[in-house]
Amino acid sequence: MDSEEHVISALLRKFRPEVDVVTACRHLKAHDDYPSLLSISETFKAYAIDNAAYNWPFERLHELPLPFITYVTTHNGEYMIVTEINDREVFLTSRNSYEVPMLLDSFKLIFEGTVLVLEPPEPGTALAIENTQPSSLIEVDDLPFQVTYVDIGASYGLPPKWERFAQHPNFMLLLIEPDAGQAADIRLQYPNAMVLETGLSNLNEERDINITASQSCSSVLEPNMDVLRRFNLEKWFTVIGSTKANLRRFEQVAAETGLHVPDFIKIDVQGFEYEVLEGFGKLLDQVLCIELETHLLQIYKEQKLFFDIHKMLYHHGFFLRHLEQTGSFLSEAVEFNAYFVRNMHGLHVNAQAKITFWEAVNNLPPAKTPRA
C-alpha cells in the first residue's frame, strides 16, 4: 500500500467509517496529480473532510490538532500520520506499522515542514461524491461461493481490498501472526476470523526473530546491510533486539486444527516467504491463488529471491499472473507484490470462478487472449 493510500484509509476509517476505503483509494489514484499532497487533500474534501496544508515549524508542532498528516524523508519520501506528541516523543503510523513512538530528535531529522491538518466533519455531513464502488470493482454480494483466505504475517490486518469481505458468511478468514500482542489486536478487529498465534516455516522449530528499528522490517532472517546501505535504508533495518518464536509447518497446523485448505494465500514475512510455502507440503497443490512480497536482491541474508519462488510455484502448477513494484529503493526495481494463480486447465468450474473472483478483487490487468 502506498503511503498516500494509507493516510486516506486510516483517517477515513476514523472520521468517515461509512465510506468504503477501497472506493476512496480509487478516487485518490484517479486524481490528475496523484501521488501528491494535493491528491490527498482533495480526496478528503470529496468526502466532506475539510483540510489545509501548511509549511509548519518543527518547534510548534505541539500546537497542531491531532491527528495530522506530515511528509517525511524516510523510504525515499512518504506520508505519515502523527497521532500524539509529548515533550520527548512523537507517535506515528505509516503504511507498514501500527502506532510507533519516535524520539523528537530523530523525528526532526526526517521532518520537512509540510503538514496537512484535518477538520473532522459534523455528524450527518453529506458526501461530495457518491460512496459507491466503481464498476470495475467486484461487489460484496458477488461472493456466491465459500472461499478460504489465509493471511500469513497479518500484524496489520487485512489489505483494504479484502476488508469488505471480512464479515461475509462465505468468507472463511484465517490470520496467522506470531506476536501475542498483535494477535490479540487482530482478534478484536476480526471477531469472526480464526487467529493463530504462531509463525510458519518449512520446519517445526524454535527460531530467533530479529527485532529491527522499524517493526515492519523484523524477520527470522538477518538484515543484509551491504545491500540496504545502497538505498540508505540501514537505520530502519538495524537489529535492536531479538525474541524467540515457535515456527511450524502449515500442513501440520492444518492437520491439528482441521483447517480447510486455503483457496487464497497472502504472505508477507520479510524474506521468509519461500520457507513458509515449503511448509505447506502437498497442500500447496490444492491452493488456487497466492499473493506474496518478494525481492530481486537479498535485503536479508540467506533470503530466497523471486526466481527461487517462481521456480518452486511453477513446479506446483502455478504461473505468474502479475508483478506490482512496491517499496522505496531509489529508482531501482527491487521489491514486488507477486500474484500467482493455478493453471485453470482441467480445474472444476467452481475453482475457475474463485480464481476469477480473486483476480477481480486484486484488480489485476485483464488477461490477454491470443490473436486469431
Automatic annotation (TrEMBL):
Residues 2-118 form the Peptidase C39 domain. GO terms for molecular function: ATP binding; O-methyltransferase activity; peptidase activity. Coiled coil: none annotated. GO terms for biological process: methylation; proteolysis. GO terms for cellular component: membrane. Keywords: Methyltransferase, Transferase. This is FkbM family methyltransferase. It comes from Mucilaginibacter terrenus.
